[in-house]
Amino acid sequence: MSDFDYKAELAKVPEEPGVYRYFDSEGTVIYVGKAKNLKNRVSSYFVKSNQHDRKTKRLVSQIRKIEFTIVNTEFDALLLENNLIKKYQPKFNILLRDDKMYPFICITNEPFPKVITTRRVDRKLGTFFGPFANQKAMYAILEMFGQLYKFRTCSLNLTPSNINNRKFKVCLEYHIGNCKGPCEGLQKEEEYIAEIDQAKHILKGNLSLPKGYFEEMMLAAASKLAFEEAQEFKEKLLVLDKFQSKSTVVNPNIKDVDVFSIVSDEQTAFLNFMKITNGFITQTQTWDVKKKLDELDEDILTMMVWEMRDKYQSEAKEVITNIPLAIELKGVENTLPQIGDKRKILDMSLKNVLYFRKEKADRQVAEESGGDRKMRVLLTLKNDLQLKTLPRHIECFDNSNIQGTNPVSAMVCFKDGIPSKKDYRHFTPKTVIGPNDFATMYEVITRRYSRLLEEEADLPDLIIVDGGKGQLSASCDALKALNLYGKVPIIGIAKRLEEIYFPEDSIPLYIDKKSESLKLIQRLRDEAHRFGITKHRDKRSKNFIISQLENIEGIGKITATKLLKHFGTVSKIYEAPLEELETLLGKAKAKSLKEQLNIINPV
């Protein structure tokens, strides 16, 4: 930044709404942004640079020139930003258009318009409907048009003068009944345009007008006793009814509305759009956007709402979203429903976007794992928990006690998805009195990772604690005290519904019960529980034996513990020769113990 005096540049920036542009040393636009207050927003890149992430710092390091444009409102700034991003395609801006070019249906601007499909949008060519992310739906509409109407497919220039001068002859399409021969003047243009208008209404999702027209024509033909003609119109009505029955009905009371939902992680935002017309879903598309900087979800969503409404030529006055838009769009109401039919529509959109994200993650896992099952499970776990790194080293903690007696905690370690038993550890609480799961978890986490820090050993890629929000919170407090919070991912798993809890998030994650990642978490939890229970039983048995030995005259707790530690079991104490007991306890105490053991039946 030595050759760029940002303070001098900032002095020129006004406190007005507008759009700013950053240029690099070659004069290329590298970023376009909008702001309610240009001075505050632009200054934040330079004044608060220590708070930026790596990508934003890289952007700032490349800025050599700043330009700005003042506008009247935030909405005007959104429009200008959108246009400039499309024009310059800056490398630090997210892309505002999908990489895929979905097809459109176009009704051409010419005498006797044609209905065609195209991937190239040129508004001068005609009126465009789409794009159709689902091409089956598009071809279903075209097939229906073929059953309802006789639109021409030729490329003839059917001007009135050409038709009157009889420049053209009907083709095979006329003879097989697919065209009414407008090229020879056999079909009036008014009649043809009326059918084109009906097709436009169908493409807009309004089937009531063409249905009303066919019903009217059917009744008129029947009144003239033209029953064959009436039957033709009846069959067209049946075609429309069949098509309508296959459409996804949302709610007839909800007319025209656009629905958007967004979920994201640090690298990618996933979005779904549903266009609803007269209670039917007429368009739907799901896509992802790669983040270039630390963009907020509401900013991405607002850009995409504007982009997709323009792309799909939406005139809906209401937009339903799962988070608020960053700014208010002119003439459009932004709704965030919590209950009712609109909430059901939003849930449908969210279901689509979550499925899309999972499907994409699954494809990525399959590609990256290369058929290695262990690697596939770890990659799935990484995606499900949104971890930054692959969890090759996982440690799981569990507390065991019965009515507060003989408490013990266990830590098991999995490496590359399989148990690493040499790294298993037991902990007997030293600072906790009585059954206090939270305090015990705090102590055990502190002891484990204090030791690893002292030894400069590798920290795990993931910590799992058996328990819900309470145990997780205590564990997080321990990590904070060690300055490890945020450096090592940690989750809690609650047994009842297998909820996964994250720090500072009250809403749990529910992983698919059939998921390999959840099964791995359950294996860790169950292994920690087994390991802890085994130690707990050993400890309880040992304490019982010590208490029994203490009942022998002259044997206290210290002596009982020494005996058990040396011999291991009570039966070996019974079998021990007097000489060995004398070496351990002295002659007098050994003789007394041997005499008393001889009159006690071994347990």
From TrEMBL:
Cellular compartments annotated: Cytoplasm
UniProt entry tagged with the keyword Ribonucleoprotein: no
Entry keywords, A to Z: Cytoplasm, DNA damage, DNA excision, DNA repair, Excision nuclease, SOS response
UvrC family homology region profile domain ranges (all copies): 340-479
GIY-YIG domain residues: 15-94
Signal peptide coordinates: none
Subunit structure: Interacts with UvrB in an incision complex.
Function text: The UvrABC repair system catalyzes the recognition and processing of DNA lesions. UvrC both incises the 5' and 3' sides of the lesion. The N-terminal half is responsible for the 3' incision and the C-terminal half is responsible for the 5' incision.
Similarity remark: Belongs to the UvrC family.
Listed name of the protein: UvrABC system protein C
